[in-house]
Amino acid sequence: MTVPAPRPASAFTGEGKAAVSTITDLDVTRLAGALGAEVRGLSLAHATAADAAVLSDLLVEHMVLFFPDQEMALEQHVALGRHFGPLAGHPNLANPFTDHPEVFELAASRGGVADEWHTDLTFMAEPAVMSILRMLTCPPVGGDTLWTNLCQAYDELSAPLRDLCDGLSALHNAEPHGQPEAMAVHPVVRVHPVSGRRALYVNEHFTRRIVELNRSESDLLLGYLCAWVHEPRFTVRYQWTAGTVAMWDNRSTQHYVLNDFEGERIIQRVTIMGDTPTASAPPRWQPYVRSKGGASSSHHDRLLRDWHRHNGAPETS
What we know:
By secondary structure, the chain is α+β, with helices and mostly antiparallel strands. It has a single domain (14-310), classed as Clavaminate synthase-like (Double-stranded beta-helix, 4-Layer Sandwich). It has 6 helices and 16 strands. Strands 1, 2, 3, 4, 5, 6, 14 and 16 form an 8-stranded mixed β-sheet that branches. The protein has a 3-stranded antiparallel β-sheet with strand order 13-7-15. A 3-stranded antiparallel β-sheet has the order 9-8-12. The protein starts with 26 loop residues before the first strand and ends in a 7-residue tail after the last helix.
């Protein structure tokens, strides 16, 4: 392929100085109509900041990239991630084997299979920008991962539903990690800071409630949107081999691991932090937060009320 003129690696987050890449020949193969490409012709262990700038452009275009047959040590993995921005380990989950503050590790033998659709760390006020995963050990069959294109999912909603979603926000929390008090509110529809495309930004793993709707209305709409983004035509499915590296844009994708395998599966991930989700439209309605609790108030009503009290937002009766 002809490699485009690169932007700086930090253009992925909108900052930085110009850089010149040494990449001259990459083999980029699209894997599905919606998203995903396999990339050959670059050793990620020796990637420079300028190389990362080229990969940033490819990532905005394809949303998830796969690099087979990579040989990369742990510190080289971390160094690669740092080209794209600040890193952080997982705020709630401990690594089973590797002690490193900037690396997150999952092992199937320790219950580490991410088998619910999600975008990484959306319960944080400034969630993950992108993730870079290295497959250390994988079963010969099964354990594939699927990603979905959240921009296409938004685009293919009907016009009235897009209009409704553009004015809504949603509460996310870390309840799956036993930390329900760790929560944030983000727009239901966000704008990608580089491509300018709109994307649905709710997921079944971390999103608890549509802020402006009552509980039953929220359950209906949130359930529909979470099911909608998993439509097969929005997705790509990848079969792993040990040594493959994947990087994905958390601002435009969700992912899901198929828990259909036996044996060990170990991954290590570095996570580029500092995202600031921007709403596609200004708020149009006040939060639906009842000021009185009691038996009629759901668990997620109470979470939402607590969040708004902490952030100084008004309540409705």
